[in-house]
Amino acid sequence: MPSRRSIFRHALISLSFLLLYLLLNRPEVILLSRIGFVAWYPAIGVVMALLLGISPWYALLACFADAFASRVIYSQPVISFSGTVGSVGIAVCYGAAAYVLRGPLQLDLGLRHRRDVVRYVSVSAAAAVVATMIGVACLIADHSIAWGEYKSSALGWLLADTIGLVGIAPFLLVHVFPHVRNWLSPTPSRLRSAHSAGTTFTFAALAETCGQILTILAVLWVIFGTKDGRYDHFFLCFVPIIWIAMRQGVRRVVTGLLALNFGIVVAMHWFPPSAATFTKVALLMLVLSAVGLIVGSEVSERQRLAMDLNEQTSYLDSLVQNSPLGIVVLDRKGSVELANSAFERLFQYDRQELTSIDIAHMGIPDDEATDSAQLIPQIFAGNALHRTVRRRRKDGQILDLALHGVPLTVNGEIRGAYLIYEDVSEQIRAGEAQRRHAELLDRLVKELELRTKQMTSLNEMGSLLVCSGTVKEACAVVADSLQRLFPDAPSGALYLFRSSRDLIEAAVRWGKKDVLAPTFPPDACWSLRRGQPHWTGHPGSGIACQHLTQSSTSECLCVPMVAQGNTVGVLHLEFESAAELQRDSGRESFRESRQQLAVSAASQIALSLASLQLRETLREQAVRDPLTLLFNRRFLEESLEREIQLAARKKQSIAVLFLDLDHFKRFNDTFGHDAGDMVLQSLADLFRNFFRATDICCRYGGEEFAVILPESSSHNAAIRADALRSEVKRLQLQYRKQTIRQLTLSVGVAAYPEHGSTSVELLKIADQCLYESKSRGRDVVTVASPQNARLPVDPVIDRR
After folding, report:
1. Of 151, 260, 450, 538, whose CB has the highest number of CB atoms within 10 Å?
2. Strand runs labelled E in 600-744
3. Residue 166 pLDDT more than 70?
4. Residue 67: is it exposed, middle or buried by C-beta count within 10 angstroms (0-12/13-18/19+)?
5. Which helix (H) or strand (E) holds 420?
6. Each residue of 695-707: pLDDT tens digit?
7. Pairing label, strands 797-799, 781-783
8. Looking at residues 343-360, what average pLDDT do you find?
9. Residue with more model confidence, 262 or 186
10. Where are the alpha helices (DSSP H) in 624-672?
11. Share of the chain above pLDDT 90, in %
């Protein structure tokens, strides 16, 4: 809802308009000769300015004002065509014109554009034509004029209205109604023209204004004041108007038009023209107003374009000069036309130096001379350029720059080039650091994956070693695992100390076995000498281990295997080459990484082998006699039971020999226990050489021995026993340079299943046969009979 203040102000404007309309309708103002014939009609200009400047709805007020003026000033009846149809029709015509100009055409009320002036003149002239036809028709209908006066009255009416529209309304729209709108509304409306805050007056501008005023007065005097040339020289009116329009544009020319038109009307009052001259003067005022408006709008538009161009130029120049990026503009010859301060700071050249420098070759490093010299010609060839280049500035520092270049094209012709240089050295360095960091992270991830894989392989090897039952099985596990753990070491060997500790022999070898020595003394390996890993290049390179063959051309690593303070052997690896040298700075070398892994593997292998050797030693101690190293009685009983079960499945026979060294106690008493031990060891050596590998020789206790002969009958066993007895008798032994007397054996023989079906029975029968041999005078072989009867076979071999 409008406020009281707004209503009051609109009411005040309406009252002011009504009074001004009545004033401008006075006959002496419009030079009324009679009804329908006037020189000009300024009131219609006020109406059009009100409808355009404030609102087309003021057409209702204009309709009332026209009817009221006809009644008050010209005493026309209220009920008449002119007072009703004429007033309404004229108001509707100009109201519709105002609506079209404000709405669809979006007229600039400041008339600063030529198109707005043309639109205003065209639409208002069209409205004036229609209004003239309606008004003159109403005069004829009211019998105010005759039909014969229609054309002359219509021409005068049209000229009078048009003069008001183009001579009065523009002044009000440009200078008066902007203030009225601001007064009516506290905020600018959508249609308010954008006016400058004020005009700066200088002495030159004031002098020019005075000159223009004097020119208008002089022209009026020449045209109307001189008696001889009165109403001649109408063309002189264009001089001040063209002057004002060309110098100050539409804002000043509308004022000049108002002043000149008013001066012409005043002069016509003082010097009344003839009827023929009357129309000429009206036509002069119309043409003068139209020309002044069009020329003024054209000049204003050009001034506005010049100001916009100057503003844009200043803005662009400010952007270029204040840009943090180095900007340079080249002419078609490649010379510098413009360079901002950032470009000068970037390359450390001043403006005078830049004018004599070839930008295409400025600061190009030697390594980019060929490629970079072609960049500027590419731009002049019409190609936009976006790339990173390296340039050397005046102090010699190399910069990484992002170069953006485009050709400057005018009317399809390349007139120069526009280049932008951005210093991206920090970004390049940061990107390079980020790339190196990413590569480092990638390498670390790969190394971590490799370490994880290696640890998995080590754990798997350790698990297999734990499950290995013998050293031989463990060596096979080591050979397989190390080939997967060291894919770049195709050859290698696992060396273990012999029990004598005087020689190292290869427990297992893989890869090129011909380059790996099968055995070597401990002092031939530097790793055993130093007690730490030792690298050896190919022979002739560095300190090489003596156990390496001449055909070895690889990088070799020897790692001593130490477990619980005891060196059990050497792990030897041969790598293909030393091509993988030191990696990135701060990272482990190829040798160090492989050495760490080899040390871990050797430590695990050493512990496992030491455990297996200890296990085998304990097992040997559990089943062997420590003096003779033959199997003991416990092993005899377990083995005999196992062999009997095996023979039962295969339906084969087994023989058991019980042996006793004759008169061994007397021998000990004579020569001592050390000599007795030596004799027992000699007998054990004889047994190992005499019997088959599948035969089981055991020390049953004291000087008694037992031998299991698988797949042997009692007869064959007796023959072998007798042969052994003979070998013992031929045995020549010395102890401390004393010859020991001849040794003899007593033997008892029993067989499965001939003499017994269990191990206990066989051992008992064989023992009985042994005692039988003792009782028969010793140095005798006694064989059990099926009926357990003592039947001598011959003087030497008895069969029971």
Report:
1. 260
2. 654-661, 696-701, 704-710, 734-735, 738-739
3. yes
4. buried
5. strand 413-423
6. 999 999 889 999 9
7. parallel
8. 79
9. 262
10. 633-650, 664-671
11. 18
Q: How far is CA 788 from CA 270, 373, 756, 765, 783, in A?
A: 186, 119, 10, 8, 10
Write the single-letter amino acid at 1.
M
The Cα–Cα gap between 286 and 161 comes to 10
Which string of DSSP letters, residue by residue, matches 337-353?
A: EEE-HHHHHHHT--HHH
Bridge partners (DSSP) listed for residue 390: 400
Range in 84-98, 105-119, 223-237 with the lowest mean pLDDT? 223-237
CB-based contacts of 480: which residues, under 8 Å, 6+ apart?
none
Question: For residue 131, how many other CB atoms are within 10 A of its CB?
Answer: 23
What is the tally of helices (H) and strands (E) in the chain? Answer: 26, 20
CB 454 within 8 A of CB 597: yes
Question: What pLDDT was estimated at residue 793?
Answer: 35
For the chain, the average pLDDT equals: 83
Cis peptide before 27 (omega within 30 of 0): no
Does residue 31 surpass a pLDDT of 80? no
Closest C-alpha among 770, 730, 765, 726 to residue 747: 770
96-135 pLDDT, tens digit each: 999 999 989 888 888 888 888 889 999 999 999 999 898 8
Q: Which residues contact 445 (CB under 8 A, 6 or more apart)?
A: none
Distance CA 230, CA 240 (A): 19
What angle do the packed helices 471-485 and 590-623 form, to 10 degrees? Answer: 170
| Cα gap 576→579, rounded to integer Å | 9
Spatial neighbors of 532 by CB under 8 A, at least 6 apart, are 560
User: Residue 86 and residue 79: Cα distance in Å, rounded?
Assistant: 11
Q: How many CB atoms lie within 10 A of CB 304?
A: 13
Cα 352 to Cα 328, 339, 340, 702, distances in angstroms: 14, 11, 13, 120
pTM, full prediction: 0.50
